[in-house]
Each structure stands twice: as structure tokens, then as C-alpha cells.
Amino acid sequence: MLIGAVADDLTGATDLALMLAAGGMRTIQVMGVPDDAHRLEDFDAVVVALKSRTIPAAEAVSLSVAAARALRAAGCRQLIFKYCSTFDSTDEGNIGPVTDALMAETGAAVTIACPAFPTNGRTIYMGHLFVGQQPLAESPMRDHPLTPMRDSNLVRVLQRQTASKVGLIPFPVVHQGAAAIRTAIAAAARSGERMLIVDAITDRDLREIGTAVADMPLITGGSGIAIGLADNFARAGLLAPSPPPRTIKAPPGRAAIVAGSCSQATRTQVKTAIEAGLPALRIEPQALADGRQTVEAVLDWAAEQDPLHPILVYSSDEPEAVRDVQSVLGRAQAGELVERSLAAIGMGLVEAGVTRLIVAGGETSGAVVGALGVAMLEIGPEIDPGVPWTRALDGRDLVLALKSGNFGAPDFFIKAWDRLA
Ligand SMILES: Nc1ncnc2c1ncn2[C@@H]1O[C@H](COP(=O)(O)OP(=O)(O)O)[C@@H](O)[C@H]1O
Ligand SMILES: O=C(O)[C@@H](O)C(=O)COP(=O)(O)O
Description:
Blueprint: E1 3-7, H1 10-22, E2 27-31, E3 45-49, H2 57-73, E4 78-82, H3 95-106, E5 111-114, E6 122-125, E7 128-131, E8 134-135, H4 154-159, E9 166-169, H5 171-176, H6 178-190, E10 195-198, H7 203-212, E11 218-221, H8 229-235, E12 254-259, H9 264-275, E13 280-282, H10 285-289, H11 295-304, E14 311-314, H12 319-329, H13 331-351, E15 354-360, H14 362-372, E16 376-384, E17 387-392, E18 399-403, H15 412-415
Parallel strand pairs: 1-3, 1-4, 2-3, 4-11, 5-10, 5-11, 9-10, 12-14, 12-15, 13-14, 15-18
Antiparallel strand pairs: 2-16, 6-7, 7-8, 16-17, 17-18
Helix pairs in contact: 2-3, 6-7, 11-13, 12-13, 13-14
């Protein structure tokens, strides 16, 4: 194994796994801390998907360290800590604490923090993260149900999460290329900085950064940071690149979409799917809470729909509605109630014959895949940047697309099925 990765949510893990596979690495995704049952040595890259983005920092640290130990025991040469391209986190954690713990684990004196993903509109300039044309704190991420991002300056955001000194490798240095980046990292480390936000505006920047960090034991960032990594191993003669998967075998059966993301991209995809005539049912947290809506009733509705068309079950809602529900139920409690219900619905749908399932939302995917008990995923072809089809490698015969809340074109829920063989 060349690269081992610890991802803080499921959709983030598939995003990174897709990037590594696109670079020619035979890549597998494992759900939760790997144990002896997982044969990891057969792959160039292994991505461990945790659900650690919003749990208490101490728990996130202990799960991440356990995952890193399993990956290093299986021989991985470089560790990636993957978090969201919009740096989703609270001031208490978890990016800073997990990075500190993984630095201790790998003996890294310095590491980089680079969530840039230009293809999906995430760029960093002078430490400020942009989502499309907007600074992070003015983007829809300011209203995320669990991790509202209200500061665009990542040096500041990360510094609030760690006692380690945070620095910046600014764009004028990055623009000069790998050698300049490497020199700047060494100088920053000498001055006592341990975590370096690295500016990146284009994929070219990410490739130069990738070349510069070839020898770092730990790197942290979004999936974009992996763009240049496969080439490092190929240049060193350690990787014979494999062609990325062009198709994936899907079992016959019904198709369904479960959407628990309230991100703008998902809301547009839900609207587009409904306008295109997909049978759709809305989940209302307040109705779940007081029993007016039940999982059983949702599954009964699903059973009545035409089996030839994908069905859509969604809780996605506008920021004002989410705020209203949270003010009554509590932020975490509303999230957990919806996740638990969507997980039970996902499970019920699969038991009723769904074999092709899209789940929208990172936390939601964690809940649904956890309920299904799927432990390993094969990575298939890209549907849209950052989102592949995947296939369960154990237990159930099932293909899954775990869609990051903010990724995918408006017609994602309609066109995704065409990528299946
Ligand atoms: N209508 C709603 N009201 C309140 N919370 C919701 C609603 N719908 C979903 N949620 C919660 O919001 C969170 C969305 O997070 P996630 O699934 O990670 O989506 P994303 O990928 O967009 O971040 C989940 O915890 C989910 O249960
Ligand atoms: O880096 C990204 O933006 C994604 O890979 C990611 O982490 C997705 O998280 P969610 O937005 O919670 O789905």
C-alpha cells in the first residue's frame, strides 16, 4: 500500500477515493477502522471512511489514530487526513485536534492543510477559502445545519482549533512551483509553524504542491490535494498506474435516492428531479418527532410506486426551515432524528429490492451505509466531479453513489443511472 487515508465522512472518502483511482491507483474504501478481516495490502491506496466530522474532538482523535495505525501496520507510506473542501468543522474541532494527533502518530514535524478543489469551485487565496465566486463565510456554507462556516480565513479557523502554530504558504510562492513551495515549507517549519494552509487556485497549483510534499509522512486537505500524489509514486518506480474504472456492474433491481443534505446543490437536484417527474416524498423532522410521519408509512409509499422509475425520499430544506426545526428540536437532535429515520428508510428500501441507491449528504451517507452494514466499497466511474458509483464488496449486492451535499450538476439524480452497466 502506498497511500492510506483517513476521511472524516463517507462522501468525502468516496471523493478522495475517486481522485486516487483517477490518478491510476487501485483504490478501495473501507467503512470504519479496518480490522484483520480487511485485506488492505492488495491495493495501492486505501481510504478509511469515518463519521468523525461533528462528533466530540476526543472521539474523532481516537478513531482517526486507530485508523492511521491500521493503515500504517498494513504498510502505507504516506498518510492523508481528508476533510471537507469547505473546511467543515466547529471551533472545538475536529480538523486541528485530529491533525495534531496524526502528526504525533507519524512523527511529522510539519504538515500542510489544503482543502482546495478547483474543479468544484473551491480555491484558496492568501489563506481565504472561496466557494465559487464567494468567500466561504458568504457562501451557502454559512447556513450548514451542523457546521456553519462564518470565517473565510482558514489560518484563523484552524488556529482556533489547535495549540500548534498555523502558517500560510501564499499564492505567490505556490505559483513559483514545487521547489519554492518545498523551500517555504522548510522555512516555516524552522520558524516553529506546524500546520500550513497552502493557497491553490488551479489544478496546476495542486500538482506543484503534490510534488513538493512527496516526502511528507502526513498531508491534510480535500480530495484535490491527491491530484499530484500518484505521479510521485510512479516517478519513484513504486506505482504502475492502472486505468481508472470506466464502468461498474450493477445488479438488477429498483433504484432510489435518499437525500438528507440541505446544501444548495442537493436542494437544486431535488427540485430538478421533482420537476422531471420522479416520484418524491418529503420527510419533515417535526412530523417525525411527533409521530405524524413514520418510516413504515414512507416504505409503504415507496412500495406503491412504479418499480421502473427511481424514487426520491428527501428531507432537504431551506435554511430558514432548518433553523425553525432546530430551534424546537435542537441542532444535533434534529440532525440525529433525520439521520436515524433516513437510515431506516434506506435499509427498508434495500430490503424491498432496491439495489441501486444514491444517498445525498455526508452524515446521511454515514448513517445509511452504517445501517446497511456495508464494510468495503469498490470505486467505480465518476458521475460528476467528486462523486463516483461504488459497489458493496461484502454482504449485499448493491451499487451506491454517496453524493457530497454540495457536489453534482442539477440533473445528477436523473443522469447518474446512465453510468451503470
Ligand atoms: N429538514 C431538516 N431539518 C434539520 N436538519 C436536517 C434536515 N434535513 C437533514 N438534516 C440534517 O442535516 C445534516 C446534513 O448533513 P449531511 O448529510 O452531511 O449533508 P451535507 O453533505 O450537505 O453536509 C444531517 O445531520 C441531517 O440529518
Ligand atoms: O471535500 C468535499 O467537499 C467533500 O468530499 C466532502 O467532504 C463532502 O462532505 P459533505 O458536504 O458533508 O457531503
